[in-house]
Amino acid sequence: MDGFLAGIRVLLSLAVVFALLWFLAKRMRRNQGGARRSVPVQVLGKAALGGKAQVVVVEAAGRRMVLGVTEAGVSMLHDEDAPPLTRAEVQAQQDAAAKASAPALPALPFDLSRFTPARLK
After folding, report:
1. Do residues 57 and 45 touch, judged by C-beta distance below 8 A?
2. What's the domain count of the chain?
3. 83-86: long-range contacts at Cβ-Cβ below 8 A with a sequence spacing of 24 or more?
4. CA-based diameter of the chain, in Å?
5. What is the pLDDT of residues 4-31, one digit of tens each?
6. Spatial contact of 65 and 78, defined as CB atoms under 8 Å apart
7. Which of 16, 26, 85, 115 could potentially form a cystine with 89 if both were Cys, beta carbons 3.0 to 4.6 Å apart?
8. Based on the domain organization, do 32 and 72 belong to the same domain?
């Protein structure tokens, strides 16, 4: 009889532990979803460096970033505040986007060749 009661006690303890884990997992999922904000990311341009390596220029949350993309991962090569656009620049980008399916790569304020590995030069 004591063995039976001990078994019931173990099962109840196990049920409480699983219920607690389920509750915490549910709460964690809810908190992550609420804290996540959607930041629009715009790909301004990309260039292949050979093989499966690329340099990609993106703009997100008022920042312009140059990213190196390879099979192994993504690394930030350069990061700066995005310059404010004039009305003429906005109109020119809208006109170019209407003519082409993808926007053209804007002129960058720095030289990308310094980010190119020596073996690719």
Report:
1. yes
2. 2
3. 83/109
4. 87
5. 888 899 999 999 999 999 998 888 877 6
6. yes
7. 85
8. no
Q: How many CB atoms lie within 10 A of CB 68?
A: 18
One domain for residues 32 and 48: no
Question: Is the same domain home to 18 and 52?
Answer: no
Boundaries of domain holding 102:
41-120
Q: How many CB atoms lie within 10 A of CB 46?
A: 15
- Alpha helices (runs of H) in the chain, residue ranges in sequence order: 2-35, 87-99
**pLDDT 10s digits, 39-67:** 788 888 888 888 889 999 888 888 889 99
Regarding whether 112 and 55 lie in a shared domain, the answer is yes
Please choose, from the candidates 42, 47, 51, 50, the residue with its C-alpha nearest in 3D space to the C-alpha of residue 97. Answer: 42
- Is the full-model pTM beyond 0.70? no
The DSSP symbol for 68 reads: E
Specify whether 16 is located in the same domain as 71.
no
Q: Do 46 and 30 lie in a common domain?
A: no
